[in-house]
Design brief:
flat; mainly alpha
Length: 309
């Protein structure tokens, strides 16, 4: 049952419980004022201006730091990067309690998520006594993951969940690199993990970020699978892997997974039949194959994704 059908069923149950008639419900709905178009446009403009303001702040800080970097001492370099990032993070938390500044919260959190890890790396570079740089990157990812995820648990802001996933994935990849785990294995693990997490998030109020992480997870998985199967006797099985991702896209109703699987199938088809594409007939066959594949993907989108939303 779709969410629309569930909503209608709940409305019917409430109406029956309180003995409401259809004409009473319609009359009450007609009294509900429609959203003001001018107010909606003003809200969009305010959000655009907030993001532009955040970009200008970040650009100004970057230009100032770049111009004066060679003249800064180690402590000042840490202060203007990590200190500024942490100050912006505190300011972003303060804006959550004041509706007047709610539009700048997300841009400030993103700026802080960029400046703080930069500052941590600068601090390690300035005060460390050698060692493996990857250990410093892992330390940075862990610190940022803990900060962002704990803040998300407290504030329930979607952008904090997004940054938590980013630093978590980066930290996992860095840790696996330190352990010298093969890249294709790491890619497969990241792909499966991010896709599974995205599926869980898609069921919550934070589902707006799932298209990006579905795409990232599918790209990691498809890349890892291709790298593992390339030049092997079972290389052709990659068609099945990409088709499996396409099927998964219909199950979880994700256009992103459908898109990435279609691109993977197209790319692998060209790669697998590259020797046959050296003549005109091969190109014609390839063209018809790609047209058919795109039409099939559109059919799946219409039948299994749009029809259930």
């Amino acid at each position: 049952m779709t969410s629309r059908a569930e909503a209608l069923q709940k409305i019917a149950e409430i109406a029956a419980q309180h003995q409401l008639h259809a004409d009473e419900i319609v009359s009450e709905l007609n009294k509900t004022p429609l959203p003001d178009q001018a107010q909606r446009s003003t809200g969009i403009l305010a959000r655009i201006m907030a993001y532009l303001g955040g970009v200008f702040v970040l650009a100004g800080v970057a230009i100032f730091i770049g111009m004066q970097w060679d003249h800064f001492s180690s402590a000042v370099r840490v202060l203007v990067t990590l200190g500024t990032g942490f100050a912006v993070f505190i300011f972003a938390l303060a804006t959550m309690t004041d509706p007047r500044f709610s539009k700048v919260t997300t841009p400030m959190l993103l700026i802080a998520a960029l400046l703080q890890p930069t500052g941590i790396v600068v601090m390690i570079n300035e005060y460390s006594r050698g060692g493996d740089p990857e250990h410093g990157l892992l330390f940075m990812c862990v610190i940022m993951l803990v900060q962002q995820f704990l803040t998300f648990l407290a504030k329930k802001r979607t952008v904090l969940l997004f940054t938590s996933l980013f630093f978590g994935a980066a930290g996992f990849g860095t840790f696996c690199d330190i352990l010298n785990i093969d890249y294709e294995v790491v890619a497969l693990a990241l792909g499966i993990g991010l896709t599974a997490i995205s599926y869980v998030i898609d069921k919550t109020e934070h589902h707006v970020i799932t298209p990006f992480w579905y795409f990232a997870g599918s790209v990691f998985f498809l890349y890892g699978a291709f790298d593992m199967l390339e030049n092997s006797i079972v290389e052709i099985l990659y068609f099945g892997v990409a088709a499996g991702v396409m099927y998964l896209g219909t199950v979880v109703r994700s256009r992103t997974l459908l898109f990435s699987s279609v691109i993977a199938l197209m790319g692998f088809t060209g790669y697998f039949f590259r020797d046959s594409l050296a003549n005109a007939f091969g190109l014609i066959i390839m063209g018809f194959l790609l047209i058919g594949l795109s039409a099939f993907a559109m059919s799946l989108n219409k039948k299994y994704i749009q029809a259930r939303q």
